[in-house]
Design goal:
The strands form 4 sheets. Strands 1-2-6-7-8-9 form a 6-stranded mixed β-sheet, sandwiched between helices. Strands 3-5-4 form a 3-stranded antiparallel β-sheet. A two-stranded antiparallel sheet has the order 10-11. It has 3 domains: 183 residues, no CATH class; 58 residues; 83 residues, no CATH class. The longest helix is centred in the C-terminal third of the chain and has 23 residues. By secondary structure, the chain is α+β, with helices and mostly antiparallel strands. Helix 3 crosses helix 5. 32% of the residues lie in helices and 24% in strands. The structure holds iron/sulfur cluster. The site of iron/sulfur cluster (SF4) has 13 residues, from loops. This is DUF5787 family protein. Pfam families: DUF5787.
Length: 355
């Protein structure tokens, strides 16, 4: 993986995702895992997310369909009773008006994941499937291919917030191997709780192991901190975050990761542009733009790109070179890979094995 080829953090991120899907955790036997990207809370998105999963629980999660369950749906299906009951008696008060709960009940009914009936003008519900505990651990990885001092400074503050909040079980920084005897990332001022993963070619190794955080315990959200350097004596501000809030957020993140995986990037890009190419690098299918002659970012590869040019219709009609044109072919290829990765995790197969 040459330096030019990983200029963009986006391409680096895809390679990290691909490596994690096959090999997580570093320097141990692989465990069943689902990998996704760009997920988190409203104020914080992690680049790469690794969900370590229980294969049996994951297979049972499948009964609820491939779409994610949002927090309102989770409230309903996780608390639904085994026997018919009036929904207001069966469910804990959600903290928001019951009419929204009724909407979620109807949605769950239409997705066929909850039994619903009307008796004496009352909506009654019954569980169809028990929602399983399928997420074992959540690992957040921040990708910085070129982790120099200024990148480390910018990242350090954010990582300190991640550690204080303790929403993930572990936090890592992934960076590109430099080949130096001591990786520069180790010399940067990053929180000691954060692991350092050095990526080289198709491999990666842990150069600093992270400390386990405590997602089951209360966390601290840093809302404001002194910005005036060493002489600034103003106080930082903090907020207490309950274990319940964290548990709900973790499950919401896991559900989104389950739905999206990491290959969904193509959904927001323009593989139907004639300049769009998918190139295999370090085992990952990485987008490449023929017009820019480099890897494009997901943000620039959009309908507003000035160089966007639609695929010629002939590409689609003549089955060139893959049936349906290259854009469609790339989408289908990524979808097939996503399905295979899911099947591997459900079967509990080692992610390193190829099927
Ligand atoms: S020209 Fe623009 S839209 Fe087309 S592949 Fe390149 S970045 Fe994407």
């Amino acid at each position: 993986m040459t330096r030019e080829r990983i200029d963009h953090e986006f391409g680096f991120e895809l390679r990290v995702c691909r490596w994690a899907e096959r090999n997580w955790p570093p320097e141990s036997d692989p465990v069943p895992a689902i990998v996704s990207r760009q997920l988190g809370t409203r104020g914080r998105r992690w680049d790469t997310i690794v969900l370590e999963v229980d294969p049996e629980g994951l297979a049972r999660r499948e009964a609820f369909g491939r779409e994610r369950l949002d927090s309102d749906l989770l409230h309903v299906v996780r608390n639904a009773p085994a026997e018919w009951a009036y929904y207001r008696h069966a469910l804990p008060h959600p903290g928001y008006p019951w009419r929204y709960v009724r909407e979620s009940i109807h949605e769950a009914d239409s997705r066929e994941i909850l039994d619903v009936r009307k008796r004496s003008n009352r909506v009654e519900i019954r569980r169809r499937f028990e929602y399983p505990d399928w997420v074992l651990r959540i690992v957040a990885i921040e990708n910085k291919p070129d982790l120099d001092a200024s990148a480390a400074r910018a990242l350090g503050d954010q990582l300190e917030r991640d550690v204080a909040l303790g929403l993930a079980d572990e936090v890592w920084v992934a960076t590109r191997a430099t080949g130096e005897r001591v990786e520069p990332a180790l010399l940067e001022d990053l929180p000691v709780e954060v692991g350092i993963l050095v990526v080289s070619g198709e491999g990666a190794s842990a150069r600093w192991h992270p400390r386990r955080l405590a997602p089951d315990e209360p966390g601290t959200r840093i809302t404001e901190r002194p910005a005036g350097g060493g002489h600034d004596r103003s106080a930082a501000r903090f907020e207490y975050v309950s274990p319940n809030w964290k548990a709900e957020k973790r499950l919401a993140i896991a559900e989104r990761a389950y739905e999206r995986g990491w290959r969904s990037y193509v959904d927001t890009m323009r593989p139907d542009c004639r300049h769009f190419e998918g190139r295999i690098d370090s085992g990952a299918l990485v987008p490449h733009c023929g017009a820019k002659d480099r890897e494009q970012t997901a943000a620039e590869c959009s309908g507003s790109c000035p160089e966007f040019a639609p695929e010629p219709p002939a590409w689609r009609t003549k089955g060139w070179p893959i049936e349906g044109g290259p854009g469609k072919g790339i989408r289908e290829l990524l979808e097939r890979r996503r399905e295979r990765a899911r099947a591997r995790s459900e079967a509990g197969a080692t992610p390193g094995s190829r099927r």
